[in-house]
Amino acid sequence: MVIEDIKAGIKGDIGREIFFYETVGSTNTIAAGLAEKGEAEGVVVIADSQERGRGRLGRFWVSPPGVNIYMSIILRPEIEPKDATLITIMAAVGCTSALRRLTGLNVTIKWPNDLMVSDKKIGGILTETKTAHKRIIYAITGIGINVNMDQDAFPEDIKEVATSVKMETGIPHSRTEIIIEILNAIDYWYRILKEMRRRMLLSEWQYLTSTLGRKVRVTVGKETFTGLAESIDDEGMLILRLPSGVLQKISAGDLTILR
Ligand code: BTN
């Protein structure tokens, strides 16, 4: 992975400046530190490995060196904190369309943040925000993509549910090319989010998702809901139709597709 090559492929504002590290705790933490110091929107942190890679819901993100993508983008969108899910939706759309174009794989989005290929997880997005007075001061969108990881390298407990670009296509892929494609796609979709063309973003998400129309189980804290994933609303919340017929809105949770 050569940072100069990545920079040469960047077309927009996202990734114009890149901080690269061999190893970090978490690129999200590094990016948040840079944002605190006033680094601008579009600055990207990339690491070859992470010692404390974070997933959603306090989970660990497996981040060995030399094989995968771990990167975080500083964003400063002028949207309300209640709309923060849209940032993850935007990044998921960017990553999915970039991966589809480059690899030919049928990558789909599992609400809210999982990138899937044939029901296995190939990547994930973790957006963390700092807010004050109903404004987002900054958002850090962290992206992890399993690129050249072999099945044996995954820990036992996720071996059956995780996959990589190499495992699915049978050939190794250039991390540099994938990073360029993702950052350019995010530049495009982020502009659409900022222009508040929400319907365009949400309809692209609906086209790329594998969650809608499926029977799902969602765990939200101590509560579990089972129902039909019917749609997402303007804020990116999932709308479930419960067996009683009642519609339940869910802002964040752990989702399992039942069939
Ligand atoms: C998830 O699916 O739970 C989200 C995973 C996000 C992982 C990425 S890797 C780069 C960035 N740094 C982190 O510590 N996490 C995100």
Low-confidence stretches: none
Q: Report the CATH superfamily of the largest domain.
A: Bira Bifunctional Protein, Domain 2
As laid out across the biggest beta sheet, the strand order is 1-2-3-7-6-5-4
CATH architecture descriptor text of the largest domain: 2-Layer Sandwich
CATH topology of the largest domain: BirA Bifunctional Protein, domain 2
Strand content: 25-35%
Please give a structural write-up.
28% of the residues lie in helices and 31% in strands. The chain is an alpha+beta fold and 259 residues long. It folds into 2 domains: 3-208, Bira Bifunctional Protein, Domain 2 (BirA Bifunctional Protein, domain 2); 215-257, Roll (SH3 type barrels), CATH 2.30.30.100. The strands form 2 sheets. A 7-stranded mixed sheet has the order 1-2-3-7-6-5-4, with helices on both faces. A hairpin with a 3-residue loop joins strand 4 and strand 5 (114-117). Helix 1 packs across helix 5, helix 3 (85-103) crosses helix 5 (175-194) and helix 3 (85-103) crosses helix 6. It starts with a helix and ends with a strand. The mean pLDDT is 95. Bound molecules: biotin (BTN). Biotin is lined by residues 26-28, 50, 53-56, 59, 61, 70-72, 113-114, 124-126, 142-144.
Short recap of the structure:
It contains 6 helices and 12 strands.
